[in-house]
Task: inverse folding
């Protein structure tokens, strides 16, 4: 036990030093949820689990009592009576409540059954409604196999509420009592002995006090800093909710940005290249500068027409870009524009009339991919007043594909079409006889005008 007491003293000393050097932050509230089910009477290390826990908590609470920006509360489960599965907030959050918590911890008697899921579900109401605090839950338990409810589902609901920054779980006792992983419920740590019990508690409180600095460095395939301006987002891995968003950039001396983040959260990071570059499950240590190196291999893509001179204006068609073989839209640009994409193969749709599709186009690292498409031609359609409706179809290998309807309110209609073979289908006004429907084939050449007179 001398070693245990020494660790407690060291923890208190280190905590004081950390408090002096930490980054100023909002108030941190830590809710301790303590397992007081009957199994806590079982022997572990030097004494019963509950006795060891009481000793560790009492000494440790002394070490954090003078931290003005930390408030602690205590919820207990399994202590009400032998047949009870209840839980109760024994000491709520309030300044200077350390003596109340210690007094309650001293008198706890394990008596009932395990209800960790119920206790966790009830915990959201334990935190004040103020939004200026970082709320943390610390569960101390000797095993959850006999708990009612689904701790994983409950933990996700708690995390998704946005009230809790992080849930920590300390497992004490025999390792075989934790056969089922509790990572789904929070950051689980198995404590093998009394010495690490105190050390783990200290580490959690230390992290709750500090922030982590992250230097974001985006490099190309040659390991040079990427000279680009790109949005960057940090998401909570558990909830998928964005925690921080910024713009990656480098200054004139090629110095990357530094971002300050919460070290309690595990992040999924998205750099908004096209398509986005995603890094999963990244953690950052407090009290130091963490490097986040992202390697991006990309090239540029541009589409333009073949440059034939025309006596009409060629539209700047929208261009849709998809990963090859995928229907998920990756990028969007206009004809003539150059846009950067991650290296790989893409399928491209030019929203001309009809749509032009280019498949399996390769974008190569640090290279420009220039694609040329034909200049559209013009169908000049003259219609008699008796024509009420009609449609234009593209014809390929005997198969018709709808392109557009004719405008019944226009006698002369001008339609830009990509080069190819087409069929025109028209119906006279007020006619219901299929025999009166006319069809006409015509060709469109690149940059050419085709005159079609339906009055003849």
Result:
């Amino acid at each position: 036990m001398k070693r245990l007491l020494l660790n407690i003293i060291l923890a208190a000393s280190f905590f004081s030093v950390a408090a002096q050097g930490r980054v100023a932050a909002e108030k941190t509230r830590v809710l301790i949820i303590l397992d007081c089910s009957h199994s806590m009477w079982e022997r572990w290390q030097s004494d019963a689990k509950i006795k060891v826990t009481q000793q560790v908590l009492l000494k440790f609470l002394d070490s954090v009592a003078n931290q003005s920006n930390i408030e602690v509360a205590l919820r207990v489960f399994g202590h009400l009576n032998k047949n009870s599965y209840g839980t109760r907030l024994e000491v709520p959050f309030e300044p200077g409540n350390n003596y109340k918590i210690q007094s309650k911890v001293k008198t706890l008697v394990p008596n009932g059954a395990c209800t960790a899921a119920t206790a966790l579900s009830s915990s959201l109401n334990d935190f004040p409604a103020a939004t200026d605090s970082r709320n943390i839950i610390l569960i101390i338990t000797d095993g959850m196999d006999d708990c009612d409810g689904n701790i994983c589902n409950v933990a996700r609901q708690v995390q998704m509420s946005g009230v809790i920054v992080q849930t920590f779980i300390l497992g004490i006792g025999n390792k075989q009592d934790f056969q089922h992983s509790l990572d789904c419920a929070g950051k689980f740590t198995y404590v093998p002995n009394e010495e690490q019990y105190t050390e783990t508690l200290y580490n959690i409180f230390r992290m709750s006090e500090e922030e982590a600095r992250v230097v974001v460095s985006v490099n190309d395939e040659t390991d040079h800093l990427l000279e680009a301006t790109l949005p960057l987002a940090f998401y909570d891995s558990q909830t998928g909710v964005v925690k921080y968003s910024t713009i990656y950039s480098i200054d004139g001396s090629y110095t990357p940005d530094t971002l300050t983040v919460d070290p309690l959260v595990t992040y999924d990071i998205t750099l908004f290249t096209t398509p986005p570059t995603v890094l999963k499950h990244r953690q950052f240590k407090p009290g130091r500068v963490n490097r986040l190196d992202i390697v991006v291999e990309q090239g540029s893509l541009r589409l333009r027409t073949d440059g034939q001179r025309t006596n009409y204006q060629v539209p700047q068609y929208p261009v849709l870009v998809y990963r090859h073989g995928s229907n998920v839209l990756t990028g969007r640009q206009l004809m003539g524009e150059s846009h950067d994409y991650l290296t790989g193969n893409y399928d491209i749709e030019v929203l001309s009339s009809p749509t032009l599709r280019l498949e399996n186009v390769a974008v190569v690292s640090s290279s420009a991919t220039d694609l040329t498409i034909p200049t559209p031609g013009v169908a000049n359609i003259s219609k008699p007043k008796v024509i009420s409706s009609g449609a234009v179809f593209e014809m390929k290998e005997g198969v018709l594909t709808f392109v557009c309807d004719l405008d019944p309110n226009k006698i002369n209609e001008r339609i830009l079409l990509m080069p190819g073979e087409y069929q025109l289908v028209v119906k006279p006004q007020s006619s219901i006889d299929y025999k009166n429907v006319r069809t006409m084939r015509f060709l469109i050449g690149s940059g050419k005008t085709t005159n079609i007179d339906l009055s003849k």
Summary: The first strand starts at residue 27 and ends at 35. The helical segments are 2-21, 49-64, 98-107, 116-122, 151-160, 194-209. Residues 1-25 have pLDDT under 50 and may be disordered. Residues 377-453 form a domain with the Immunoglobulin-like fold (CATH 2.60.40.1120).
